[in-house]
Amino acid sequence: MNFNEFLEEKGEKTIPVLKYMAAKIGLLMMKGKEPECLEEEYIKKSMELTIEYYEKIKALDEEKTEGIENPEEEPEEPEDLPFFDFDYWQDMQVCMHCKTEEEAIEFCKVMHKAGKKWSSKDSYKNLTGWGIHKEKTCYNFNRGLYDEKAAYFSGGHTILEWSQERERGLKNE
Predict the structure, then answer these.
(1) What is the reported pTM?
(2) How many CB atoms lie within 10 A of CB 134?
(3) What is d(CA 83, CA 76) in angstroms, rounded to the nearest whole number?
(4) DSSP label at residue 85
(5) What is the dihedral of CA 128, 134, 135, 136, to 10 degrees?
(6) Could you give the CA distance from residue 125 to residue 23 in angstroms, rounded to a whole number?
(7) Residue 54 CB partners (closer than 8 Å, separation 6+)
(8) For residue 127, is it within any domain?
């Protein structure tokens, strides 16, 4: 299968992967480094592995919600979540660092409540992505992505700390 056929077969699932890879390649080129591999087969294999990974995570999340008739129609989360002003940070290069899994779960609930979604259009409600980078996890809430804190730092992003923003949000309610 050639590259164009591969993209057609995988459809929309490739869009977040392509955006992520383009950002990584752009960062390398801005630093004057030549990306190691832009070969068609390398990109295809990277996409396949990433899509396979996301499908496994989604399957695990579906196991957690097994027995629930329609997880999208669960009662809304209680109103005791901290406030975060996503509009203030709109269109900025910014991300939120979560040091613990509890922080990640809570911040993902806050993003879900605000109507935010992953770049794949999936809800933050049932998927945090914490298992990959753990205490180094940062969420680019404007783009629906996540990565290691160091990647966002080297990309010039402002890095907010959820523990601090959470306290501000509780005080401002």
Answers:
(1) 0.58
(2) 13
(3) 16
(4) -
(5) -90
(6) 26
(7) 13, 120
(8) yes
Structure tokens that stand for 95 in this block: 């991300």
Identity at 27, one-letter amino acid code: L
Note whether 43 and 121 are same-domain residues. no
Q: Which residues contact 16 (CB under 8 A, 6 or more apart)?
A: 118, 119, 120, 144, 145
Q: Which residue has the higher pLDDT, 134 or 36?
A: 134
What integer best gives the mean pLDDT of the chain?
77
Range of the domain at 7: 1-69
| Pair (95, 154) in one structural domain | yes
DSSP state for residue 121 in the 8-state scheme: S
Positions of E strands within the chain: 94-97, 137-140, 145-148, 158-161
Q: Residue 138 corresponds to which tokens in the numbers above?
A: 């940062």
145 contact partners, CB below 8 Å, separation of at least 6? 16, 19, 20, 118, 119, 139
Burial category of 83 from C-beta neighbours within 10 Å (exposed 0-12, middle 13-18, buried 19 and up): middle
| Residues 120 and 52 reside in one and the same domain | no
Would the pLDDT of 76 be above 90? no
